[in-house]
Design brief:
alpha/beta; two-stranded antiparallel ribbon; 9 strands; about 45% helix
Length: about 200
């Protein structure tokens, strides 16, 4: 039986309170949106596997009005392509100083850090994890990172960890049923439209 998501330093009440505050979710790429492995494809360069469940979770959060941002030290072309597909406009790529990215994100969105959550797994992520309201990590993260996190998912990075967090935020904020219902309706309409073409 899988372990439950582990709250490291927050009581259940405090964790729920913080989840309710989240207006923006920031995601690291390698190790969070992916499992951290890189593949070289001739003619394309370095590429990654992204999980469809994470993409769907991101879409559900966006539907609920929660903004998404991505911070990554890499700027391989597969990352902006994935961000474009998911409609993520706040993508800070190629900068390992993620505090700079955070400061600019706060300026652009006018959302305070204590209303943000960040999912990270490596040393570069620790400064931002310490600044935001809700610090989240994944099971395969470095131990120093997990010590900083308020929450560690039960799902591995790259295997649906972002979806796990998305579902948790939606449930705590009371968006779950409405968002799922609207999304199913959209998918149904899209299916009908496809059949008619």
């Amino acid at each position: 039986m899988p372990k439950k998501t582990v709250a490291k330093k927050l009581s259940k009440v405090a964790l729920t309170r913080q989840l309710k505050k989240v207006r923006l979710l920031i995601l690291d790429v390698d190790g969070v949106l992916t499992d951290g492995r890189l593949f070289w494809i001739e003619g394309q360069g370095w590429t990654r596997f992204f999980h469809v469940h994470d993409g769907y979770g991101i879409r559900l959060l966006q539907k609920a009005g929660i903004q998404i941002a991505v911070f990554s030290g890499s700027k391989s072309k597969d990352i902006p392509e994935r961000m474009k597909l998911l409609g993520i406009s706040h993508a800070y790529l190629g900068n390992e100083n993620k505090i700079e990215s955070l400061n600019d994100l706060v300026r652009v969105t006018q959302i305070r850090p204590n209303e943000m959550a960040f999912m990270g797994d490596d040393l570069f992520d620790i400064p931002v994890l310490k600044k935001v309201g809700l610090a989240i990590s994944v099971p395969q993260a470095l131990s120093e990172v997990k010590k900083t996190a308020h929450l560690i998912t039960k799902t591995l990075g790259g295997s649906g960890a972002v979806r796990e967090v998305a579902d948790l935020i939606l449930k705590v904020q009371g968006h779950e049923e409405r968002v799922f219902s609207e999304k199913l309706s959209e998918e149904s309409q899209r299916g009908k439209s496809t059949q008619n073409t």
